Amino acid sequence: MCSVSLSKKRVTLLRREMSNLQFDCFICRLNSNIQYLTANSKVSNGEFVMLIPLDSQPILFTPKLEEERVKEEAKNIWVEVLGGEEKIEDKILLKILELKAKKVCFDSLSFNQSKIFHKKLSKVKIDCKPEILLNLRKIKDWEELKALKKACRISDKAMEIALEFLRVGVREFEIAAEAEYAMRKMGAEEVAFKTIVASGFRSSFPHAGNTDKKVRDGETVLIDLGAKFLGYNSDLTRTVFVGKPTQTQIKVYRVVLEAQDKALKNINVGMVGWEADSLARKTIEEKGYGKYFIHGLGHGIGLEVHEPPRLSAKSMDKLEKMNVFTVEPGIYLPKKFGVRIEDTVLLTEEGLKPLTVCKKESY
Amino acid sequence: MCSVSLSKKRVTLLRREMSNLQFDCFICRLNSNIQYLTANSKVSNGEFVMLIPLDSQPILFTPKLEEERVKEEAKNIWVEVLGGEEKIEDKILLKILELKAKKVCFDSLSFNQSKIFHKKLSKVKIDCKPEILLNLRKIKDWEELKALKKACRISDKAMEIALEFLRVGVREFEIAAEAEYAMRKMGAEEVAFKTIVASGFRSSFPHAGNTDKKVRDGETVLIDLGAKFLGYNSDLTRTVFVGKPTQTQIKVYRVVLEAQDKALKNINVGMVGWEADSLARKTIEEKGYGKYFIHGLGHGIGLEVHEPPRLSAKSMDKLEKMNVFTVEPGIYLPKKFGVRIEDTVLLTEEGLKPLTVCKKESY
User: For tag attachment on chain B, is the N or C end more exposed, with fewer CB atoms within 10 Å?
Assistant: First the structure.
């Protein structure tokens, strides 16, 4: 079990941004952000709200039914428990008034909630800037990296198990079940996302999910899976051919592998997202498959499976040291098959360091 | 695999509400609502937006990378594919202008998105009413009931497997892993929520999750699990004692069981949420445990695990025929143990019909 221990370093980083933007109060409603600021605690699995004033003690608002759990786990954070049917919005309103805050920022705010706040806080300027914490979260620290590495090790092992289990006649969801079971037994708190096991023509759908379709001889099978460990996610894809692959299958596979290799070897600190993307995209275009690479090269990963930086054709996101993201080129031939090869990687001064290291077939 | 087939009946129900409230265009951004309107398709697992004009053909906006999957699955719905880096907001804006809509309603809208829409659609009235579709979704039809029943059967069986696996020395997450594996092998597309396996003092946390804590002799173990089948969720809790229970454990268990029984036998069509809640609450209060029943009696369940109607101390939600909800009284003694017994039930003219039927211990 983790304790709900405020990360002083991360709160300081947030306050620096608040100060720059002249916010005197920041309100976190997203579980991922609360988890980030409470140093990877599990407290965020519930309907919590965290309020961070610029100059005073952060407060965690907690529903009544979470009171005992949070008290058990809370170490250095002020907890305020909501009464039975008390509304969290009212608690926030009162606290903002009490703090005499003038400019308040949310990490997430709905249109309907904003109407309530605007009405009752007519003198307070209200803004919503999810990017503030997302930008901080782009740069992982060593503690985060440890959790990410463990999540990656779990997914590596699960992929091996899935590939061992794969054979003609087995159903896609059965392969997914084996991989997910393995991840849970290894201590993953849950799967990072719905496992993809896509066989045959279904491998041409980038987000295929898994169905009761049986795997047949000669088919392409694309497996995309991830584990969540202490809140941090991994993301890993391998594509294999059942039985003897055709010349086209081999050709497409080699192009994707070469594109990934090109990106893995050449992405560097200081590049922007589109430059990284173009390394793989050019390779695929040169081989004539450009129009079948229908998504970006990758995405940042951490407390959420998809977070900044984006590696896509138009992304201007700067790639920095200690970013963790995926590198996942793919070619999808409609009604035929698709190939994607994906690893989760860490960006260092010396270039990319793969965190998932599961074997890739070399057809 | 399901086809993306528009549910004409459900769209008609939505349009009736739109007409009553004078909306000429409704925009669905929530996966659960898109799934509802497309008759339980799986198309909603992605970043889709559905636009339902009052008088013309509904449109499903689809990201480029989902194009082939949606085309494969789509039967009677108009699909518009977004180009590579096209923004969905721009597509919606253009369509609203093209339709000459005057009053547009969203099922979900963020503050930041609302600013964009208000700026660019200065003459259009914009509203967000999640309750419109949630209210329609409260009354299940036979097709939905079939999926719910299957989800319930899967969770019944998974609970049996978890309880068989439970023994001294086993870790909470290992029990959860067995239950989840069983659900997936039985065809659940995923778990409905993070499985709770809470042993000893941790059973006093209603939302305990599962940890690497080992189960010890004499402990209370609370298991709360659910399966998702064709999009529909089940929710089931059983509490057991490992070894010989104490008099207090038996006493608390019997109070919770009696409270649940009282509710199961007496909840009727036409009651409101608080009346249903009070059936169980009074029983628990009479035995002196009132202040330890720290949540509502239950919640509607369907495409989401928590949806209307609410059964809680102040809920005015009307209970109607073909509602499906949980009945789950609990007593949580801080630092000691907790007991919750929960079933997913269907409300009929003849009263409640349990959809989960897994055995309850009678200590």
Answer: N
For A110, residues 6+ apart whose C-beta sits below 8 A from its C-beta are B108, B109, B110, B111, B128
Q: How far apart are CA B110 and CA B206, in angstroms?
A: 30
Q: What is the pLDDT of residues B46-78, one digit of tens each?
A: 788 999 999 999 999 988 888 888 887 767 788
pLDDT digits (tens, 9 = 90+) for A193-203: 999 999 999 99
Q: Do B184 and A205 touch (CB under 8 A)?
A: no
Domain limits of chain B? 8-136, 142-354
Indicate the class that CATH gives domain A8-137.
alpha beta
If 0-12 CB within 10 Å is exposed, 13-18 middle and 19+ buried, where does residue A212 land?
A: exposed
- Low-confidence residues in chain A, pLDDT < 50: 1-3
Of A106, A184, A212, the CB nearest to B180: A184
Residue with tokens 């909630």: A113
User: Helix, strand, coil proportions of chain A in percent (round to 5)?
Assistant: 40, 25, 35
Predicted TM-score (pTM) of this structure: 0.95
Label residue A125 exposed, middle or buried (CB < 10 Å: 0-12, 13-18, 19+).
middle
Q: How far apart are CA A185 and CA B53, in angstroms?
A: 48
CATH class for the domain made up of B142-354: alpha beta
Q: In chain A, whose CA is at the least distance from the CA of B193?
A: A190
Question: What backbone torsions phi and psi does residue B44 show, to the nearest 5 degrees?
Answer: -75, -10
Whether a cis peptide bond, with omega within 30° of 0, leads into B309 is yes
At residue B2 the predicted structure's pLDDT band, cuts being 50, 70 and 90, is very low
**CA-CA distance, A196 to A59, in Å (whole number)?**
39
Phi, psi of B285 (to 5 degrees): -65, -45
Length of chain A: 363
B8-136 CATH choice from 3.60.9.10, 3.10.310.50, 1.10.3720.10, 3.40.350.10: 3.40.350.10
Return the closest-CA partner of residue B279 out of B294, B259, B299.
B259
Chain B closest-CA separation from residue A350 CA (Å)? 31
